[in-house]
Design goal:
This protein is mainly alpha-helical and 384 residues long. It has helices at 39-57, 63-81, 88-95, 104-125, 132-142, 181-193, 201-215, 222-236, 248-253, 255-268, 271-307, 313-326, 332-339, 343-355, 374-380, and strands spanning 7-14, 17-24, 329-331, 360-361, 370-372. A hairpin with an 8-residue loop joins strand 4 (360-361) and strand 5 (370-372).
């Protein structure tokens, strides 16, 4: 549906240039979202697969292990959209404090993303509302170290920003002037808390994502926070018990379409086209998460079955297997801390896993060796 522009332009002067900054109208859209022409079916399909994902999460043999790995995959994907070059292996090595040669700024950005998501989820579990205060807290953690740490972490911007181009005057898009940000974000907060407008939670998340990206309330990190908000909204609204749904891979794969649809919303008010794309992304991302969980569960069962017949050696090897499931790049010293095994026992058990093709030594050295659970990382690395 073409509603016309979903905001107004405010003419300001930035650096001696006249700039037209876009100030979005508050949500929800007017007239309301039209669920005819397939949008209702897309919503029902997305809700169904999310329900399957949520149900699966309750039956994972080790839910915290899966979350540990899956959250880190999302951190890498979301940060890659912003131009970082770090891989999942880089992040895991960084967390071991054993990442020589890894670009420090890049891997710190990814590590910050993990910390920001975990902070947001912890606050929600404490009963803290998903609010502008929490959004600022998440942003402060996201920009706490590395690039962006000098761009007012945790604070709404106090100057004009822009998207594309070298300055506001030649930018692809200019968000609201900084003076309009507090009012825009106050309206945004009222919308995400509304419970009397009949808007389904998934649709609210889709609308809110576009509105947040349009306001662009921070000097840096808006894309990452905007993608995090989708998952946090679904957890806050209890559609998901655990943070298992992420759209970063889908948005990276269809980046040009994504940006075009954001522009169409602002220019034409075509929320329906955006929501059709968004709901398709939700369904595909949930299906991928289900497939990843099932593949990992099958891998763990198969590898355990290879270890169990190894007689007296199996006991220690099974404990080491559990340790590398939790940390798929590990040193023997870390395995000792995790399992309580002595260094000789942990080393011998790890060697058995290498013999069985479950683990592989990374360094080629005799000392300070690192071991990787290759097939585990191969499953997680799909799409990276």
């Amino acid at each position: 549906m073409r509603r016309g522009e979903t905001g107004k332009y405010e003419v300001t002067s930035v650096g001696g240039e006249t700039v037209r900054a876009f100030v979005p109208f508050p949500l929800p859209p007017a007239p309301p979202v039209d669920f005819e022409r397939g949008l209702q079916r897309a919503l029902e399909a997305a809700v169904l697969i999310i329900g399957r994902l949520d149900g699966l999460s309750a039956h994972l043999p080790n839910r915290s292990l899966f979350l540990y790995a899956y959250v880190r995959k999302e951190a890498v994907l979301s940060s890659q959209i912003e131009g970082t070059q770090s891989s999942l292996s880089d992040l895991l090595l960084f967390e071991l404090d054993e990442a020589p040669g890894v670009p420090l700024d890049d891997v710190q950005e990814v590590s910050n993303y993990v910390a920001a998501l975990e902070h947001g989820l912890a606050r929600l579990r404490e009963g803290f509302p998903l609010s502008n205060r929490l959004i600022r807290e998440i942003h402060a953690v996201l920009l706490s170290r590395g690039r962006g740490s000098g761009k007012e972490p945790g604070e709404f911007r106090r100057s004009q920003n822009w998207i594309g181009g070298s300055r506001p005057g030649n930018a692809v898009f200019v968000p609201p002037p900084h003076t309009a940000v507090p009012e825009c974000m106050a309206a945004f907060e009222r919308f995400i808390h509304a419970d009397d407008d009949g808007i389904p939670l998934l649709v609210r998340a889709g609308l809110a994502h576009v509105q947040f990206e349009t306001i662009h309330p921070f000097l840096d990190g808006n894309g990452r926070v905007g993608r995090l908000l989708i998952t946090l909204l679904l957890c806050h609204g209890r559609m998901l018990k655990e943070p298992l749904l992420y759209l970063s891979l889908y948005l990276r794969q269809y980046r040009a379409t994504y940006y075009d649809l954001l522009d169409r919303v602002r220019r034409d008010g075509d929320w329906e086209a955006w929501l059709a794309f968004f709901l398709d992304g939700v369904a595909r991302s949930a299906e991928n998460a289900v497939a990843t969980a099932e593949a990992l569960a099958e891998l763990f069962r198969t590898d355990r079955a290879h270890i169990e017949p190894k007689g007296r050696r199996a006991g220690s090897a099974l404990r080491v297997h559990e340790a590398i499931k939790a940390h798929p790049i590990s040193s023997v010293q870390q395995v000792c801390r995790t399992t309580g095994l002595s260094f000789p026992a942990a080393s011998a058990a790890m060697e058995l896993l290498v013999e069985l093709g479950i683990a592989r030594e990374l360094t080629g050295q005799r000392r300070n060796r690192l071991f990787v659970y290759d097939r585990f990382l191969a499953i997680l690395n799909e799409g990276l």
